[in-house]
Write a structure and sequence with these properties.
Largest sheet: 8 strands, mixed
Number of strands: 10
Order of helices and strands: EEEEHEEEHEEEHHHHHH
Radius of gyration: 29 Å
Strand content: 15-25%
Structural class: alpha+beta
Number of helices: 8
Distance between the termini: 77 Å
Strand order of the largest sheet: 5-1-2-7-10-9-8-6
């Protein structure tokens, strides 16, 4: 079953336009979910709105949105009145200007959507816009009304189509100085950085999202399956929480030694794909790293 588009309208570049639709990039259909059940009857529970003063249930036809204009005073707004509010970005993605994608800080990215032409007539214009953007290696900035809110968006070539990512408003993004402003700048031994860099080099690999697994959800499924079979839920030993490192150099040495031991179990071809740390260590720290990676020799007894 094809996913339902989140939005339908037009993509516009100057005087060129084409019909497009947005589709969510993620699928949550396989996610474990729970319903609220009445423990006594085993029946599902339904939620009802109740009057805040009388406590009596409110029928669906009597529910209406209200905008607070004073203490316990509300202006009633009908759904039809909200739906009637239309601006250009309600139906048209008009690209206002182009930017380098790298110029947009990651903290402004919100939700991604696939953009595709919605009919055959629009495919040529869509392809022209997409190819021109790909050739110039630029991302377009536009606006869209999505879920009753206008959002700034970034549009860029992606695979055979376009990828639209909603952007957060500047006023909603906490600035780094608010969080990092009080962090000091400790003096760091360059050899510690060399060792940490060496560990990073040894752990390099190609990005492969197919290896991602929701281990918490897997544990939930084990719990569910055990209860279905009338068995006791599996007892999982909680992982030991890490503590603050007291001796940083010693921790880095042990990490490096552990990585080397793990690397010995890998196929030679796999190890060859990883980036080497050539030239990343100073002679002194390289010698210390090499020494740390080797297992300690046992002392001979008399």
């Amino acid at each position: 079953m094809a996913p339902r588009p989140a939005w339908k309208g037009y993509l516009k570049l100057s005087l060129v336009s084409c019909a497009v639709e947005l589709t969510g990039t993620t699928d949550h259909s396989e996610k474990v979910s729970f319903r609220i059940i009445n423990r006594k009857t085993g029946n599902t529970v339904k939620r009802h709105y109740v009057d805040g003063v009388t406590g009596k249930p409110v029928e669906d036809d009597d529910e209406v949105k209200g905008y607070e204009i004073g203490d316990d005073e509300y202006l009633l707004i009908e759904e039809e009145e909200i739906d009637a509010v239309q601006i250009e970005s309600s139906h048209t993605l008009s690209i206002e200007h182009f930017v380098d994608r790298a110029d947009i800080p990651q903290i402004y990215f919100d939700t991604p959507y696939y953009v595709t032409p919605s009919d055959e007539v629009s495919e040529e214009a869509f392809a022209v816009i997409r190819e021109a953007m790909a050739r110039q290696k630029k991302a377009g900035i536009a606006r869209i009304v999505l879920y009753r809110r206008e959002r700034p968006v970034m549009i860029e070539p992606f695979d055979k189509g376009l990828l639209l990512t909603t952007l957060r408003y500047d006023k909603t993004v906490r600035k780094p100085d608010e969080i990092f402003g009080d962090l000091g700048k400790p003096k760091i031994d360059s050899e510690l950085i060399d060792l940490a860099t060496h560990i990073i080099d040894k752990k390099q690999a190609a990005f492969d999202p197919s290896g991602f697994e929701d281990r918490y959800e897997s544990a939930l499924l084990e719990l569910i399956q055990a209860k279905q079979k009338g068995k006791k839920p599996p007892v999982v030993q909680a992982a030991e929480r890490p503590a603050n490192v007291v001796n940083l150099f010693d921790a880095l040495k042990k990490s490096l030694a552990g990585d080397d031991e793990a690397g010995e179990d890998e196929p030679a071809a796999s190890r060859g794909k990883k980036a080497t740390a050539s030239g990343s260590l100073t002679p002194k720290s390289a010698a210390r790293a090499k020494s740390a990676a080797k297992p300690a020799k046992s002392k001979k007894t008399a």
